[in-house]
Specification:
Elements lengths: L4 E5 L10 H11 L3 E5 L7 H11 L2 E6 L19 H18 L3 E3 L11 H26 L2 E4 L16 H11 L4 E6 H7 L3 H8 L3 E6 L16 H10 L5 E4 L12 H9 L8
Parallel strand pairs: 1-2, 1-8, 2-3, 3-4, 4-5, 5-6, 6-7, 7-8
Helix pairs in contact: 1-2, 2-3, 3-4, 4-5
């Protein structure tokens, strides 16, 4: 069984560094060889970020589509009716960054239910919009040899208005679109909160999973912090399934990022992969 590959989410980890380039260097020194950048668009031109990643020896493995106007409450545009032209512009920018950064995966953010609207009243229209936009995206992604990802985000703790909330909902949409360039991004933190049943969900949806992220529940801290999830078991399960993708470390460090990485160094060390940057 091949060991799992870990990626540092630099929107969450190494915030001790003021710049994204500094976080890349810090992640590499800590032993990471891959990174998720989330929203890199305001943090440098794609050529500059590529040079920073290459200088640090990091592979960029995931970024998100631009969120839209966050000052007005946007968190993605994929399922938001009437904003298809803005979605297409956002996707084009994400593809530009992904190609320059040699990043193979783009998380296509669904967006939020409009303020004041009832979820049940708008779900059908939002799903239809999402399917329309995903079909448009898939045609572009396949030409660029990129993978688009759908990530359910829990509505109980993190974002009550986010449209896509469960793996079941995401998989149903993926099946309706029916395109191999689109896959499931399964964040175990969100999945546990909304549905639990992690072993069966991982096994059931494994053929559609293109990326996995981790954090402890409920605090969203280090995987070995006190909480509901046994990551030693989950890592062993994923290894036994021959998961070959990346595990994105998308959590809030309790303190200094580096001091909280004992769990990762324990995993790396147990597989003969430990690199302390010295």
């Amino acid at each position: 069984m091949a060991p799992l590959r870990l990626a540092a989410n630099l929107a969450w980890l190494f915030q001790e560094e003021a710049t994204l380039a500094g976080r890349m260097e810090a992640a590499a020194r800590a032993g990471f060889r891959a990174a998720e950048l989330a929203f890199p668009y305001a943090q440098g031109a794609p050529e500059e970020l590529r040079a920073a990643a290459e200088g640090a020896g990091l592979e960029v493995v995931l970024l998100n589509t631009p969120p839209g106007n966050q000052d007005k409450g946007d968190m993605g545009l994929g399922a938001v009716p009437g904003r298809q032209p803005e979605f297409q512009e956002a996707l084009a920018l994400a593809v530009k960054y992904a190609k320059e950064l040699k990043c193979p995966r783009i998380h296509i953010m669904a967006g939020r239910i409009p303020m004041g609207a009832e979820r049940e009243a708008v779900s059908a229209q939002m799903e239809a919009t999402f399917i329309e936009n995903l079909r448009y995206a898939a045609d572009i992604l396949v030409q660029e040899n990129l993978i688009g990802l759908l990530e359910p985000i829990n509505s109980r703790i993190t974002d009550p208005r986010y449209f896509l909330t469960t793996p079941q909902q995401a998989v149903a949409i993926l099946k309706k679109v029916g395109h191999p360039s689109l896959k499931l991004q399964l964040d175990i933190f969100h999945c546990q909160i909304m549905d639990g049943n992690l072993t069966q969900n991982l096994e059931t949806y494994f053929p559609l999973i293109g990326h996995i992220q981790i954090a402890q529940v409920p605090g969203r801290h280090e995987p070995d912090s006190l909480g509901e999830l046994n990551y030693s078991y989950l890592f062993q399960l994923l290894e036994s399934m021959d998961y070959s993708g990346y595990i994105g470390c998308e959590y809030k460090p309790k303190g200094d990022t580096l001091k909280g990485l004992g769990w990762a160094h324990k995993y790396w060390g147990s597989h003969g992969l430990l690199h302390d940057g010295s």
